[in-house]
Amino acid sequence: MHKLSTVSVFAAAAALICTPAHAGPVTIKLATLAPEGSTWIEVIRGANADIKAKTHGNVEIRVYPGGVAGDEPDVFLKMKLGQYHAAGFTGVGLGQILPEIRILELPFFYRNIDELDYVRDQLTPELEAKFQEKGQILLGYAEPGLVYFLAQKPIHGLDDMRGVKLWAWEGDPLAASLIRAFNVTPVNIALPDVLMALQTGMVNAVYAPPLAAMALQWHTKVKFLVNEPITNSTGAVLVTKKKWDEIAPADQVIIKDICRTALAKLTSETRRQNVEAIEKFRQLGVKIEPVSAAGHEEMVRAAAQIRTDLTGKLYSAELLEKVDTLLADFRSKHAGKK
0.85 cut: is pTM over it? Predict the structure, then answer.
């Protein structure tokens, strides 16, 4: 009898030790720069309603929109401190955690969005594992979209970039490399301060997806949009592994499924709305200026130097070679398609 009791005590103790801390409801505090009323916020709140229903109230996402938690570096610091548990990041924020993800944002590297989608999907298992090593769980991609220059003067090629005072996120190595290659003057300020900088003339050019520029009201302070996408802006939602481990495994499966479905739909909708935003700019008096054929070739050549500059800093030569191979394979299978 004594022997059986001892075994039972050890078994009970082991069960308590191995049981994750998900006895009560888990609230995930999620920060984002996306403004209240945007499609991004609507989608996340819709996903939250599904999560609450399908986990029977075990998990809830509480959204903090509009940059109330600060710029992306601030948010990441607050996540490490446990003040927030999740965030929607652009490539800049993601790159602070996992620099090699910025290979998905190399300027003038991917010829179209299909190429990018293919490479990203091929790299995702590797990126997920590396994010987890950094203490973050990738819930899904939510890209802001193709990035364009918006400026106070027309830009048809690199010669027109001289003297441009371009906003750039401070500490963004990809933006810094582009600035060197394109010979512009950088103005490093936080995202929430850009509109005022445009108003005062401190900045006379910015880069952003059209929908983001509209949400941030940047289009009201520029005269031209350069109708040549520089790159595609990566975005994703991360949650800290520490908070994730508080959630029951069955609920984790539900959350990932809901988030990835919702965020894929969001990406599709964002792409559509970015196209509409360019037409809206035109209606509001922003001139849509094409890059000249010669200007395009100049930018492509300059962008090739960016890839060299960032090798060994953001990503390895091996990863760049892997992406080159993936692109070559994709292009050979889709020859003739634009």
Answer: yes
